[in-house]
């Protein structure tokens, strides 16, 4: 499963991109506004930084407007994927833009029938919103699993992009459900990388390294020292208290 980051904040993208794990970025109108940046300028900066697939969403509600906007944003960078809402106009625009060789991400998907329609309209990606489905008491991960199963059975090549990811277990469950991509908020990336045993283990190695012959008396710093969780666990993973 590939990882995209779900933000338009350049500093967040820069930090996670440096880890070497990103295949793309998803934005939406809310995320663009939250970035405080000009739409075109920020999309182009992100595309140059990350490459891969960069989703930029149209804001027209009619098919003609969506097609016009989609054609325009697709010219901003070869990496742009035009994001379209899962409405009749969005499907119509998806079909038209796909036939012009423009990549599309059909978003705001909440059901398998919607996902099947988007695939038939030629979507490159379908974005089921796991977290928002969970929010209404349904099972967002099961939706992803069912969409992937229906696509595999039907020989459909549209990629399943797990969206509205709220925590690291959503990422794990999306991978196990067969998602091709998960788009993950910055905060969840920072949660994914942390483990108290990694931090405590590194702290222990650094303390021992400082004891070698000829080492300076200065205590080496590891990230362990900045992680409040690491303080409660010794180098072997046992509790210090
Ligand atoms: C997907 O591309 C959307 O930008 C995003 O995942 C929506 O997530 P939210 O439900 O946390 O707003």
UniProtKB/TrEMBL annotation:
Keywords of this protein's UniProt record, alphabetized? Cytoplasm, Pentose shunt, Schiff base, Transferase
Tell me the active site: 83 (schiff-base intermediate with substrate)
Biological source species:
Deinococcus hohokamensis
Q: Where is this region: Disordered?
A: 213-241
Q: Which SUPFAM superfamilies match?
A: Aldolase (SSF51569)
Name of the gene this protein is made from: fsa
Q: Does the keyword Metal-binding apply?
A: no
Checking CDD domains in the record gives: Transaldolase_FSA
Where does this protein reside within or beyond the cell?
Cytoplasm
Give the protein's recorded name: Probable transaldolase
Q: What is its EC number?
A: 2.2.1.2
The UniProt regions of compositional bias labelled Polar residues, in chain numbering, are 216-229
Q: Which domain of life does the protein's organism represent?
A: Bacteria
């Amino acid at each position: 499963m590939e990882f995209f980051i779900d933000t338009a904040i350049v500093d967040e993208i820069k930090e996670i991109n440096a880890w070497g794990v990103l295949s793309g970025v998803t934005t939406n109108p809310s995320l663009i506004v939250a970035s405080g940046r000009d739409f075109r300028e920020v999309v182009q900066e992100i595309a140059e930084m990350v490459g891969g697939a960069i989703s930029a969403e149209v804001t027209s509600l009619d098919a003609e407007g969506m097609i016009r906007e989609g054609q325009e944003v697709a010219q901003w960078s070869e990496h742009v994927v035009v994001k379209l809402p899962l409405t009749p106009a969005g499907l119509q625009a998806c079909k038209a833009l796909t036939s012009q060789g423009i990549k599309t991400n059909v978003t705001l998907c909440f059901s398998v029938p919607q996902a099947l329609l988007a695939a038939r309209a030629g979507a490159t990606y379908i974005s089921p919103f796991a977290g928002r489905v969970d929010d209404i008491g349904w099972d967002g991960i099961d939706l992803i699993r069912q969409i992937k199963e229906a696509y595999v059975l039907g020989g459909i090549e549209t990629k399943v992009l797990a969206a509205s990811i709220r925590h690291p277990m959503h990422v794990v469950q999306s991978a196990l459900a067969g998602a091709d991509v998960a788009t993950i908020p910055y905060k969840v990336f920072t949660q994914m990388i942390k483990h108290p045993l990694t931090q405590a283990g590194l702290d222990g190695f650094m303390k021992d390294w400082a004891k070698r012959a000829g080492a300076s008396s200065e205590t080496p710093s590891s990230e362990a020292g900045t992680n409040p969780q690491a303080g409660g666990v010794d180098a072997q993973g046992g509790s210090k208290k």
